[in-house]
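S., here's the first fold you wanted:
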Amino acid sequence: MHQQKNIDQASEQVMSQKAVEKYVINDTFYLLIFINIYMLITRLRSLEDNYKNLMTAQERWPVPHSDSKQLYKNFYQIMQKVSHNIVCACCGIIGHNIDEFTAVSAQNEVFTLLAVNPKDVPFSFQCGITALDQQHIMIDPLAITDQGTISICQRCHSCLSDGSLPAEALANFRWIGPVPKELKDLTCVEEALIARSHLFGRIFRLEERKNREPAYSSLKGHIVLVPQNTMRLLNILPVSPDSLADIAHVVWVGKSEPDITKMAPQFTVRKQKVLDSLKWLQKHHEDYQNVAIDTTELDRWPSVFITEALLHSIAHVRSGITEDALKDGFATEDIDIKDFKGNIPNTVSGILDVNNISQSPHLKILQELQSLHQDLTINVVPGNKVLEHYQDSTYFTSAFPTLFLWGTGKHKDHRREKSELPLKAWIQLLLKHSSRYYIFTS
């Protein structure tokens, strides 16, 4: 009897559970139906509104033109507004819209936040305004206007008005410094010889002109830069000119054979210029303090010479017209049609395998050993960790000593504390720098 009672209770529980599940399933089903109906009604209303707007626009078409004089007036006013070269005294960027800058008196107290310790700056940063120079305030002198006021961008002005130092400020350990005479007028080859690392390969394209003098022009179309396997920054400089063929290639475009003698200005190395540059960098550049000058390497050089190893590997293209035409203008092929036949048209982008990545490393080592000479010096660099630009503060300043002349203005600096700059913002500031130096020399 007791057993029968337990069976009945269990049956009742099973029936109750099934009933609950049935109601839950039914509720869920009805809920989904309701949601679908609601979405359908909403979509129909949206389509109806779009249709009404379209019909209204058709009824009003053609829209009468505005007054031509007013259009010209508006255009003139806008062009007047954005046709200025204005520099921010705080962050050093150059802008063109007058509404994005504010004119501030030199006596304004906001400039006190831009004061720096002169012992931290390896060069003179006086702007010519006595009141600011006495307080060691760092600003971009190009921001001083003829009226005696100083221009500041809206972003920096907002931060300074709130009593905080902008992360973009030059005074926030972003100073660059003037170009010394020792680093002026260096050829691209000379710059490569004194750099502590080479982060990417380069292609020099020389074209034959009407006067048969070679002229340099940039590559057109897609360019793929293959990063170098930079393991460690070099501490012995200059590098051998023969090593330049590993990081750069020359392409000659013209029907005639390239005349090496006419290419001399682009690939000439002046021994004394390289030596003077390295001595100056040793003394003043933050990242070159422990660099040793390889006098043995320099003794092998004549006073002035052409980098033959680089030019002897020159590639020859008879005509660049076809290549230029393929890279210029707008794409005209429509391959998204059903009647298209054959292979999809494509053009080849230039990939510079400057590090022989596609070649077997063991084969490369054997070939290098086979070509060794007794007078060749081999620098063995231990370790296998590739430099990471997000972590190493000297990553850019060591690779581009002619851009970061004193080794300052790094993308990472522990002295910035909480006002550290993201890498993207740091690069944008360089491209907008008032000197325009980072556009024309990069």
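And the second, which I think is the more interesting of the pair:
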Amino acid sequence: MGRYSGICRVRRGDESGMKQWNERRGCFVRQRITNNNEHVRFLFEEMYRQQVHECDLSERVGFHRDTIRGWRCRYNPRVTDLEACLDYLGFKLKIVRKYKEEHEEN
């Protein structure tokens, strides 16, 4: 029987097991972002910029790869799930005031 090479790689601590980046596949995935949520779009564009595969991100963060693939076109992630993914990529989800202070005075 073959060895399961899914999430167990990370649990074993095999950081070198990351999937090799394929520019052609990365461009294909980038063109397939149909979710209009700006935060989800940013997540996938940043994954493309840092050359991180969906399957590698899912293993590092602890989601199934189909969950992250579903965000790309069909579903919106929960805030905690999005925070975990952005944290792995080196970003932080932060709440800021929508309008400037001068709008509050009127």
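Why I say that: The first helix runs from residue 8 to 11. The domain at 8-13+20-94 is CATH 1.10.260 (434 Repressor (Amino-terminal Domain)).

Talk tomorrow,
H.
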